[in-house]
Structure formats: C-alpha cells, structure tokens
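Minimal example, chain plus nicotinamide-adenine-dinucleotide.
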Amino acid sequence: MRISVIGCGYLGAVHASAMVELGHDVVGVDVDGAKIAQLAAAKPPFFEPGLPEILTSASASGRLRFSTDIADAADATVHFVAVGTPQTRDGRAADLSYVDAAIEGLLPFLKPGDLVVGKSTVPVGTAARLASVIAGRGNGATLAWNPEFLREGYAVRDTIEPDRLVYGVADERAAAVLDEVYAAALAAGTPRIVTDYATAELVKVSANAFLATKISFINAMAEIAEATGADVTQLADALGHDTRIGRRFLNAGVGFGGGCLPKDIRAFTARAEELGRGESVVFLKEVDAINLRQRQRVVDRAIEALGGSVHGRKIVVLGVTFKPESDDVRDSPALDVAVQLKGLGADVVATDPQGIENARLRHPQLSYEPDLDLALRDADLVVLVTEWRPYRDLDPVRVGASVRARTIIDARNVLDPETWRAAGWHYRGMGRASGA
Ligand code: NAD
C-alpha cells in the first residue's frame, strides 16, 4: 500500500519506518526541515532504541521517503496524521491547531477512496468534527481514528507488534483498509477492536488516565507509608500479587512525566468539563496534584539531607529525561527537580546518557556533565531521578570514594538500601522507611 505519515516526531518517524517493515511504500511529511533532512539521511532525529536499524533498512529498500511538502502525500491512499497535540499555553486543554493544519494541508490532495487515519491523541469529539471537514470537501475521502499506544523506549516493538489495535471508524470499508495496513500484525495475532470514533478516542485517554492514576495511587501510599514507618515497595509487591491489581506501574517515586500522560489527563478533564461531565473525572486533578507533589517532596528531601539549605552545595542529578531509554525531556520530573534545586541556589550538575542536548535547549542555566564519573566528583548530594541502567548499577563503594559526602536520594526506589547503607551512605528513598 502507499502510505503517508504526516508529522514525523517520536510517533510519526517510528510509524513511517515501521510501515515499511510491514511491507508498505511510505512518505513521511513534516514541517520541520531539519528533522526531515536528518530522516532523509537515515539519521534518527531523536534517541529511540531500534529506530536506527529500521530507518536504515527502510531507507535502503527505496520504499521510504521524507518530504517537507505535503503535496508529496498525493500518491498515497492512506494518510496517517501523527502531529503533536500539546497542552495549550494558557489552559489544560489540548492544542488542536497542528491537527487542524495537517488536515487542511491534506485536503487538496485527497482522492476518492483515500483514508485519513488519525494517530494523534485528541479530545473525544475531534474525529467526528474532522470527518465532517473532510466530507464537506466532497472529495470522496473518509476518516478513521486509530490511537497509538506506543511507549518511548519500546516504540519500534510496540508499533510492529502492538498489544492491541483500536479502529474508530464510520464504515466497514475503513476497517478493511486498516486490516490491510496491519495485515502482518494481525496475522501475528494482535487483537483488534473495531468501534466508533468516540470510543476509539476515549480508549486512548482513559488508558493514560488509568496508568496515571495507578502511579499516583502508589505515590499517595508512599506518603502514608512515610508517615507510619511502612515500606511502600514491600506494600506494592504484596498488592501486585493480587492479579486484579498487578505489580506493573506500582512503583513509587518522583512520578510520571513526558509528552503524554500529564497533558493527556489535563486535556481529559478540560474536555469532560466542556461536556458538562467535569465531576466524572475530577479525581484526575488529584492524580495530577499528587504527581506534581512528588517533585516537591524530592526537593524538600534534598534540603533536609543538606541540613536545611542547598545553597552553594554541589548536587548531582542523575537523569534528565522523563524515563530511561529516551532522550525526551518534555515535562520531565527529573529536569523539574534539577531546575528547582538550581533556583534554590544549589550548584547543580545534571547528567544523562541521552537527554543532555534536549535539556540544555530548555534549561541552559543548568550545568551538564555527560561523563558520570566526572559529574559525581566532589558531590555533596546525589539525587537519582531517572532510572537509567548505569545509575541502577552504580557501585556505592566506588562512587563513595569520589563524592564529598555519601548522601543519596533514590527518587525512583531502584537501589538496594542495605547495600548502599553498608557502604557508608545515608540513603533516602520514597516511601521507604528512612532507616537513617
Ligand atoms: P512530536 O512533537 O515529537 O512530533 C510531532 C511532529 O509533528 C513534529 O515533528 C512537528 O514538526 C510535526 N508537525 C506539526 N505540525 C505539522 C503539520 N501541519 N504538518 C506536518 N508535520 C507537522 O510529538 P509526538 O510525541 O510524536 O506525539 C504526536 C502525537 O502522538 C501526540 O498527539 C501524542 O499525544 C501522541 N502520542 C505520542 C506518543 C509518544 O510516546 N510520544 C505515544 C502515543 C501517542
């Protein structure tokens, strides 16, 4: 099939390359000329494990092209829309201007039988509105909404072998076209749910709302655990054995971030209010508040660990990305903590295996040191905020020899407190008995 992918960011670049893997002929279109130049040279414009390999093989096959000109989508019959839907600058709602612009841009090139497929995460009701915009043109094209569930860090696998496919469609033909697009994944047994637009849009936002709730739930339990001397990691292990609850996404820590969960739950509450149903999801505001509170708790812990003031003290922040295996720093709790500590006068040195370039663009006021050993030298306090493997694997004895004070805040609860304490460290986790 001939496919276009409009918007080649974290979602679209992976999707375009993966569609070639699934056997199609693809053109990726983006308004960002620098990004397109990199992709056209088979260089991923961001870090995503597995993307270099599929981008290289897709480009070499001659079935993947990139362009800044939407007119190059004219030959395709299926057009995926994967542009951003960030939070509006002045409110909680989703900014749909990029989606609207992408659809407007596509309209002159749509032909009878073409299918436009929304991938971006949008407020419920958007697909129905866009379907009438497309129908209004009378060019015989139709719309489907096919939300994306990929996780950064696992995006390639999640796109080629998704947990499930959800099609929001207005007619059977659209479902048949999507079946053809995803034939390889369906043949491998991927479950698919064919439904209406509104349900498909809601599946995505409610999945993110559920995941966010699970994380804030365990962080709330961590707050209570701390007040009572209980240990939230043991609590989570015990809860997780209940198959109705499950252990995944029950890790207490500095909370969630990134370009999806925070803005998606805010947009969900904003949309529910527009629908006169704000009270149905009012709990998501508390989920958001609990989440943001964790960042503050880490900062407070740092102040406490340094005896009441961080001013002039060297604090090494391990991690700036919102999660490991990604270079994405959008709404990153780690970066937020680093910025807050810097604002309080600390001498902050942040390090990260992949995220420094992006972090520097947003927060040039911070000092960055890519070399972990150099970063740690003479630290008064170490704060682990993103659970990259090299940080999880740190040897407390070796690190202990280069820091000024052996004090660590494990804001992801990924270190073994006993091992660190045995090496002479003052260890503080989140919702774990302080033990010291
Ligand atoms: P992103 O910012 O990395 O990418 C968006 C891209 O769209 C950018 O490259 C931008 O230049 C381009 N763009 C904007 N307007 C355009 C236009 N008119 N024509 C062509 N290109 C245009 O964002 P992302 O993380 O890829 O997210 C995209 C959408 O996918 C969002 O709705 C997001 O919520 C959703 N989503 C993201 C993920 C994820 O993990 N990143 C997962 C699932 C869903």
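Residues 6-12, 29-32, 35, 82-85, 98, 101-102, 105, 120-121, 148, 150, 152, 259-260 surround nicotinamide-adenine-dinucleotide (CB under 6 Å). The chain has a mean pLDDT of 97.
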